[in-house]
Amino acid sequence: MEMEKVPKAGYRIVGLPIVGIKRAVSLDNVAFPVKLTRSLLKARSVLRTFRPDVAVGVGGFASGPLLMVASLLGVPTLIQEQNSHAGLTNKLLARRASTICVAYPGMEKFFLQRKIKFLGNPVRRDIIDSGSKRAEALTRFGFEENRKTLFVMGGSLGALSINESISAGLKQIIGAGYQVLWQTGKAYIEKAREVVAHVDSGRVKVFDFIYEMDLAYAVADVVVSRAGALSVSELCLAAKPCILVPYPAASEDHQTKNAQNLTRQNAARLMPDNRAASELVEAAIQLLGDEPKQMELKQNIAKLARPNAAAEIAQEVLKLIP
C-alpha cells in the first residue's frame, strides 16, 4: 500500500525486498535470510546516498533493516510503537533506538523507561472536528437525519468475519429501523452489493473504501471495526461508541490486546472474531438502541484521545537532529 500511497502524496519512496518471517514452520522462511541480507545492503546504500540526520521507524518488518543499518552508521533513530503490545521488530530495534514513542501506557515492560515518550498515534487531523460535520455527512451519504447510523469498517482490505456477519444480518438491522454505512474492502464489494440489492432499501450505503473518513465518523452513532492501532486511535479522537472485532491472525494477537486496553476502561465493547457470526449483529442493534450506554462509551473513549500526537512526535524527531 505504501508503494502506491506515498508517491501519490508527492514523496519519493524506495522499497526493500524484506518480507516478514512466519512464526510457524514454513517453506516461505527459506528465502528470508537472502532477502534480509539484500535489504540490509540496499538500506546501507540508500542511507549513504541520502545521508539522513535522523531515521524513524513505525514498526513492522519493513522498518527493521533500515533502522538497524542507520543505528550502525551512527544515525540517531526513533521508533514509534503503535500498539499496546510491542512488535518483534521494535523490540529488537529498541536497544539501539535513541527515542521510543508509544501510544499506550505500561510499555516499560517492553522498553527502557528512560527512552519512552507516551504521545499516542498520529492520525488524520480532519477527524478532530468531525462532530461538526454531521449535516454535511448526511448529505454526502444520503442518510436520514432522524435515524441512527451503524458504520461498519473493516479497513482497506476488508474483514471477512465482519462482512459476512453484516451480510447475514443486514435485513435485521434495517428492520430494527437503522441505517448502515458499510466499508467492505475491495475483495468483498461485489458480494456486498448483491446483498444490498436484495435488501431493497435506501438505508444501506456500501463502499469498498471510504476516503472521507471524517464524514464517515461524523454520521456514525456506533462503529464496528477491527482493532488495529490507527483505527483505535481514530475512534478515540472521534469519540465514537464502538464494537471492536480483533483480527485473530494479527502478529502476537496485538489487536486483541489493543481492544482489551479499551474494554478495561469501559471505552469499547469487544467481540471475539469467532463469535462475530452469531453475536455481532445483535450486539450492534442492542448498542444502537441504548443511548445511555452510547454516552458512557463515548465519554470514556474520548478521554483516551491524543489529538496532538503527530506534532509531539515530530518534536521528538527534531530533538534528535545533531
Features:
UDP-N-acetylglucosamine--N-acetylmuramyl-(pentapeptide) pyrophosphoryl-undecaprenol N-acetylglucosamine transferase, four-stranded parallel β-sheet, 322 residues, peptidoglycan synthesis, six-stranded parallel β-sheet, cell shape, Rossmann fold, single chain, alpha/beta, 2 domains, GlcNAc_MurG, 10 strands
User: What is the CATH architecture descriptor of the largest domain?
Assistant: 3-Layer(aba) Sandwich
What class, by secondary structure content? Answer: alpha/beta
Q: Would you identify the CATH H-level superfamily of the largest domain?
A: Glycogen Phosphorylase B
Order of helices and strands: HHEHEHEEHEHEHEHEHEHEHHH
Count of separate structural domains? 2
Q: Average pLDDT across residues?
A: 93
How many extended strands?
10
Strand order of the largest sheet: 7-6-5-8-9-10
GO molecular function: undecaprenyldiphospho-muramoylpentapeptide beta-N-acetylglucosaminyltransferase activity
Domain Glycosyl transferase family 28 C-terminal: 149-306
GO biological process, one term: peptidoglycan biosynthetic process
Organism: Persicitalea jodogahamensis
